[in-house]
Amino acid sequence: MKHIAILGSTGSIGKQTLNIVDQNKDELKVVALAAGSNINELEHQARKYRPSIVAVWDQEKAADLKQRLSDIEVDVYSGMDGLLAVATAEKAEMLVTAIVGMIGIRPTIAAIEAGKDIALANKETLVTAGHIIMPLAKKHNVRILPVDSEHSAIFQSLNGERGNKIDKIILTASGGPFRGKTYEELEKVTVEDALKHPNWSMGKKITIDSSTMVNKGLEVMEAKWLFDVSLGQIEVVVHPQSILHSAVQFMDGAIIGQMGTPDMRLPILYALFYPERRTLYAEELDLFSVGTMTFERPDMETFFGLSLAYDAADAGGNVPTIYNAANEKAVAMFLDGRISYVEIPEIIASSMMEVFYKENPTLEEILETEKATYEFIESRW
Ligand code: NAD
Ligand code: MG
Question: Looking at the domain 2-146, which fold is it?
Answer without folding.
Answer: Rossmann fold (3.40.50)
